Structure formats: C-alpha cells, structure tokens
Predict the 3D structure of the following.
Amino acid sequence: MHTASLSISTSDTQKMERRRKVIVSSFIGTVLEWYDFYIYGTAATIVFGALFFPNLDPTSGMLASFAAYGIGFFLKPVGGVILSRFGDTIGRKKVMVVSLVTMGLATGSVGLLPTYNEIGVWAPILLVFLRLVQSIGAGAEYGGALTMIAEFSGKQKRGFLASLPALGVSLGILLGTGMFAALSTMQQEAFMAWGWRIPFLIGFTLAAVGLYMRLQAQETPAFEQLKQADRILRSPFTHVLKHEWRRLVIAAGARSAEAVGAQLFNVFAIAYCTKTLGMAPSVGLTGVMAANFIGLLVIPIGGLLSDRFGRKQVFLPSLIFLAAFAFPFFWLLDTKQPMLVLVAFVLAYGFGVKMIFATSGAYLTELFDVRTRSTGVTFARTISDPIAGMTPLIATALYAWSGAYWSVALFLIGFVGLAFACVAIGPETRTVEMADFADDSAGAVAAKRRR
C-alpha cells in the first residue's frame, strides 16, 4: 500500500503554543466528562435509589439506579459516531466545543431536578433523559481529545502527551469523589435534601471554563493539511468499517479491559464495600481517591515508558498484572481493614487500570490514519461503553447469583484476556506519523468526486 504524507510547517514557538492550548482544553473536557460520570455513578450508589426510585426495596432501588446509570453508555457509541464523523469532515475543534457544551448543560441540570416525591414518575424519566443527553455529548469527548493532542505531538513524546487526557480522567474522578466524601459528613437529612445536588451544579462552572479554553484552541495541523489537500472523506465511518475494520476490532478489544475495570473498581466496588461488607461509604470513597491520586503519577510514567520501549511492551504486562490481581483485590476488600482496602484500590485501579489507560491513548490514535482518526478512535472507545456502563449492574447480578465474588473476578479476567489477545496480534505503532494516510482507491474516488 502506497502511503502519502502531508507536510506540516509552523514555527516551533507557534506550534508549542497551539499544542499547549489544545492540551489544556482537552484536559478540562476530560475532567468534566469523568467528573460527571463518576458523580452520577456515586449518586446512583448512595442517593438515586431513595430519591428517584423510592417504591423499590433497597437492592432493587440500587439495581434501578445502576440501570439508569448504565443506559447512558448505550448512547455513547451513537453520539460518538455522529459527532466524530464531523470531526473527520468539518474539523476536530468544532466537535469538541459541541461535546463540551452538551455535557456541561446536562450535568448541571441533574442538580436542578425535582425528586420522585415532588413530581412522581417524571423524576426518574427526566433523570434518565439528562443521562442520555450527557452521554451523547460525552461520546466524542475523549476520542476527540486524544485525536487533537496526538496530532500536535511528535513521535518522540506522543505516548507521554497522549496520556495527559487520562490525567483529566483521574482528576475528574478525584473531584467527584472528594466532593461526595466531603458532603458525606453532612447531616443525612440535609445531604438527601440538597447536599447531593452540589456536585452536579458545579458542572455548569466546569463547562464554562472548558468552553472558554476550547474556543482559544486551533485546529490540528494534520487536519488543516488534509483539508488543503482535498482528501477529506465523505463517510469516514463507512471507510473504517470497510478498510480499517481489523484495526477497529483491535482498538475496541484493547480498550475493553480498561473500560470494564474502571467501572468495576470505581462504582461496583464502592457498593460492594458498603452494601455487602457493611463498611462506611467513606472507606470505598477514600480508596478510589487514593487510587486516582496515585494514578496522577502512574499515567505520565506509563506514557513515557511507552515512548521509550513501545506501546505493546507496556500494554501487555499491565494487562497481565490486572488479571493476576482480580482475585487478590476481593481478598483485600473482604478483610474490612481500611488500610488493606485502600491498598486494593491503589494496586487494581491506581496502577493496573491506569497503566493501561496511559498507554492506550497513543496506541489507539496511531492505529488509524488522519482521514478517519476521530471516527476510528471514538468508535473503538465507545463500542465497549455499553458493557462498561452495565458493569456495576452485571457485577451486582453475578454476585447475587453466585453468592460470592469469584464470578465478578472472572468477569473482569475475561475482558482482560480479550484485550490481551487484541494487543498481542495488533501492530506496534510507536513510529507512526500522524499526518500519513493510506492512498487507497476509496480515498482517491472520494477526492475525484469532490473535484
């Protein structure tokens, strides 16, 4: 296959400044995305069952809350495909602005919702509706952030720079966890009446700051050169399915372990600690906070290691560790010792999942060429979101069925094995040029038609 390369010419100073703005705006966007998803997941565990599904028993109420939480993940692939298509046809930046505004408005509006006792069945309906709107916006957020940063990065530092959006994920979860940890010290009556709304209302502020920064960012050089060369595809999604489906399968499979692991450790594990083991909510929340704090150190190290040794050389050992720690994670939780619980969260999520997360950023963007990168990366990430979003519900059901944690641990190991197989058969991508594209017949035909 012949490969054509698009040259990118800007001064070093201008390029560094443009890259800085892209990194900052992408970082804030991922903070908002995961702040929202985490506060929603936490609220589903400790608040929504009582306030929005009060007619159900506690277990059924929690399952209903998890279902409302998980259903939003089913729209992420839809929103991702729709928005990322425009990222590959009209520009990365414009789509990122739309994504941020949609997420921010939906997040803040949850904090304004009346409860079931105030408006009856309309309360859970509106809750689910806002969850779906937020999911549509979030569908293209992280994939778009990775695409923009990767296209501003050179080969030598791409692994490190493409890991930075993952820092936004950790910070977003830290903010959400810290907020609920602080609010958990309130009187229970006040917390259930209005305290739980505060984290959601803060979403308005995060969106406003992120929007300001995102409007300052510029389009990526790779996309600008692609546009000038008149090589933009009319249907990048169709092109991915037809010409890059193998890489799509590899990317989606590689991402699945991190997606399932994140929801298992961040959402289900807290419910397991509180509902099953009878520990105070602060124990699990502290574990998640500690894991994400450690993740702030692990993520850039993982990115740097992938630049030094290669993406697969970091990705595969991280997957092995996560699989090996699936059962010890629950052993440590079952001790009910706060310090050992903290160690369990730190090792499983703060190290295992975060190392995978750090490496996957560059790996996924390097699997697709410049014409389809936004679509390919976003769809590969969001295609596993439905199973990830339902992970707390599935894990709860598995535990109820088996009466023990072994079924949940095997569920995680299954997805880690899938990811391992996909990365193992996939290519090493560290030397890929971000502005390269495959000069295939479909691309040539599309270009000729536009002329």
